[in-house]
Write a structure and sequence with these properties.
The complex is a heterodimer of chains A (76) and B (265).
Chain A: H1 3-13, H2 34-48, H3 63-69
Chain B: E1 25-29, H1 34-45, E2 49-54, H2 57-65, E3 73-76, H3 85-96, E4 99-104, H4 119-140, E5 146-157, H5 168-189, E6 193-200, E7 203-204, H6 206-214, H7 217-225, E8 232-233, H8 234-245, E9 256-259
Parallel strand pairs in B: 1-2, 1-4, 2-3, 4-5, 5-6, 6-9, 7-8
Helix pairs in contact in B: 1-8, 3-4, 4-5
Classes of the chains: A mainly alpha (76), B alpha/beta (265).
């Protein structure tokens, strides 16, 4: 899965149109909440088989920050 | 592992332990990990012959190596497809003899907000947690499969009784097991088969320890404080299984035994 495909999953998680997120968007402006965290953890586990600890989300502010959590799993 | 609760009770010499399972054959699904694995070992120490069922051959062998006593057997199989579970149980009893008990401990946990829940995931959880339970019951009641009397135990969860966000699919399946126990308890009473379920709270197992290790300290504190008696252990749940499988519960069917340290109180 590449970055663009992953961003579509984030679009779906935050109920945006596919292609809406490019990276710099602020999560706080886009309905990010505790259920978003739970949903993101579930997506990462399903697609990459990784369990992201909840404390990793304490510093997450933007869509790019989310991408950073799975960066090493994304193809070029 | 010790039988810490029951080993401390001094039964009179003429009074056997009410949880004695000597001579009983108990089939346990989900036996290759977690509660199912622990239950196999624990129930074998109460005298039961175990028929351990799981998907992973290597881990199932590990379960078998931890059993006490003799006469145990193991069966490697995925519970899906569920259609042939009744005929599979007929082949199982050719090896084990009639079953005195069945514990459906296999189950899938799904944490997913509705936004990302798919019909495919929902079906997957429903199939293992509920459909397999129904088809195991269908197979269990066949002539020659269940001994007389016999007892079935379904592993439900407090999630089936109390709502939590992102657990809709999982909760629905666990609630279904509570309803299933009630219905089958009535239907199978005439066949001398009791059916009950256990709604367990948060239990410390190898799997949940990983989850605990990843929790922020305040979340862990909240989780612990939600259980007035603290978090449970696999032994706490295995004790409830032993009770529902033994003659000590012979007048109990269709019930939901809540083992949650007070979480739902």
């Amino acid at each position: 899965m590449n970055r663009s495909e992953f961003l579509v999953l984030v679009d779906e998680l935050l109920e945006q149109e596919p292609g809406a997120f490019q990276g710099p968007e602020q999560l706080a402006d886009n309905g990010w909440d505790s259920l978003g965290v739970v949903g993101f953890i579930a997506l990462a586990e399903e697609h990459f088989g990784v369990a992201i600890p909840p404390q990793k989300f304490l510093e997450v502010k933007t869509v790019n920050d989310l991408v950073g959590l799975v960066q090493d799993k994304l193809s070029a | 592992m010790t039988l810490s609760v029951w080993s401390k009770i001094n039964f009179r010499p003429d009074m056997p332990s009410p949880l004695d399972l000597t001579g009983r054959t108990i089939l346990i699904t989900g036996a290759s990990s977690g509660l199912g694995k622990f239950a196999c070992s624990y129930l074998s120490r109460l005298g039961a012959r175990i028929a351990a069922t799981g998907r992973d051959e290597a881990r199932l062998a590990e379960t078998m190596s931890e059993l006490s006593g003799e006469g145990h057997s193991s069966f490697v199989r995925d519970l899906t497809p569920v259609d042939d579970l009744p005929s599979w149980l007929r082949t199982v009893v050719q090896t084990t003899g009639p079953l005195h008990g069945l514990v459906h401990s296999a189950g899938l946990v799904l944490t997913a907000p509705l936004k990302i829940l798919t019909a495919e995931k929902l079906r997957e959880v429903q199939t293992i947690n509920v459909d397999a339970a129904v088809m195991l019951a269908k197979g269990f009641r066949q002539k020659g499969v269940a001994a007389q009397p016999a007892s079935m135990v379904f592993m439900s969860s407090v999630a089936g009784m109390r709502g939590e966000p992102a657990l809709a699919a999982y909760s629905a399946t666990k609630g279904a097991l509570i309803a299933l126990s009630r219905s089958l308890g009535r239907e199978l009473a005439r066949e001398n088969i009791r059916v009950n379920c256990i709604s367990a709270g948060f239990v410390r197992t190898a799997m949940s320890e990983k989850m605990i290790a990843q929790m922020p300290p305040d979340s862990l504190d909240k989780l612990v404080s939600a259980h007035p008696l603290g978090l449970g252990t696999a032994e706490d749940v295995a004790n409830a299984m032993a009770f529902l499988l033994s003659d000590a519960s012979r007048w109990i069917t269709g019930s939901n035994l809540v083992v949650d340290g007070g979480y739902t109180s």
